[in-house]
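Thread: Newbie trying to understand structure tokens

Hi all, I'm a second-year student working on a class project, and my supervisor (Dr. K.) asked me to get a predicted structure for one chain before our next meeting. I've only ever worked with sequences, so writing a 3D structure as a token string is new to me. If someone could post the tokens and maybe explain what I'm looking at, I'd be very grateful. Here's the chain:
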Amino acid sequence: MKKFSALVIGFILAVSICFFAGCEANDPTPSTTQPTDDTPVTVIEGLYKYTEVSGGYSIGLCKGMSFSKKLSLPSQFRGKEVVEIAEEGFKDATALFTLEIPNTVILIGAKAFSGCVNLYRVVLGESLAAIAPDAFSGCHKLLEIYNLSKLSLLPGSEGLGSVAANALNIYNNDDGQSKINYDNDFVFYTDEDTVFLIAYVGNDEKIVLPTSNQQYVIFDYAFSYCSMTSITLPDEIPYIGEGTFYSCKKLLGINIPDGVASIGAKVFYNCSALKQVTLPDSILTIGSAAFQNCIALENIELPDKLIIIEDNTFNGCTALSQVAFPSFLLVIDEKAFCNCTSLLDLELPECVIGIKREAFSYCSGLKSIIIYNNVTKIEYHVFYGCMNLAKIKYQGTMDEWSNIEINNRVDNIRAFNIVCTDGTIQRIPNMPQGDSQ
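---
Reply by user tm_fold:
Sure, no problem. This is what the structure looks like when written as tokens:
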């Protein structure tokens, strides 16, 4: 009996120790990471995470924290200088527009500000001696730099972390006359005779762009990650830059005004709520991946002067069921309609001469497609994963079909018929090797 009692007491003690140890381990209160032999002290305070390094602290942004669109980083913490910007410390901080790095900072770590797509102005402090690779990669509209350090920066240079890769103006003192000006919540940059709209710093859901006596251009990624539901563009805009509405996930619809000649790559990339787009016939080019992952887009009428549908233009537009092609379209580039699972029946324009690799791959709902006899080349895996494609209606003879340059991996993974004007070719394709998605 005594032995049994001792076992019971021992069991209770063990459970109690485990319980209290578990509570302590899950206590969210501590903000300081106690060092081991290899782990430096890390402290979270306010917006920032500080880590002890040689000579002081490194600094990074606490993930998920909201902050002002303008950051002036602290030079000291707990009596020590902030001497480094942590590796990936501010990576993908898309709400960051302007930045001032203090004079105490010696090093900016690798990818420290990578993906800060809205950053348009930065001040580099006096003590800065090194910028690690890719520190500012993806900062597409970082146009203005105040360089108070002794580092040599040249506009367009990819060195020193790509900080000056997109710069139009670099000042070597803090007295330089900025070319950035503001019209309410709109940010403009004037470069000689050209005016660029580079950012919107407001929070309105419905945006109306300002009209001006002087024509301006919408710069790359100008409205990326904005939360507007609608935007009205002025008539005098000549073109719309790359990624202008990148990941504007609440944008429902947009009318591009007549007169716009081109829209850049990824202009509506990942606009997951976008359902309505009006494109004028003045548009001559649409950049690659322009509508990629616009999962709510159901139909599109392409401008009649468009001759190439670039790669990945509608990749991942899973709701897209109707496409009005331009009459003089010549080429459908690779993966242009990949993963458009709601497409059922298509008729390509008569002028099309080339269909590039994986152009309609994984269009699992596609049942039939009409191709005209001007096509001279069909690349591999064009219909890969089109499980319901029963027939290709070819507007030419069987001999003409046999003369098309067709890669031997053009087929989907099941048999289909090619219905020509003088007969039907039944294809039983070989199983494609590998997955090219």
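A couple of things are worth pointing out once you decode it. Residues 2-25 form the longest helix (24 residues). The longest strand covers residues 194-200. Feel free to ask follow-ups in this thread.
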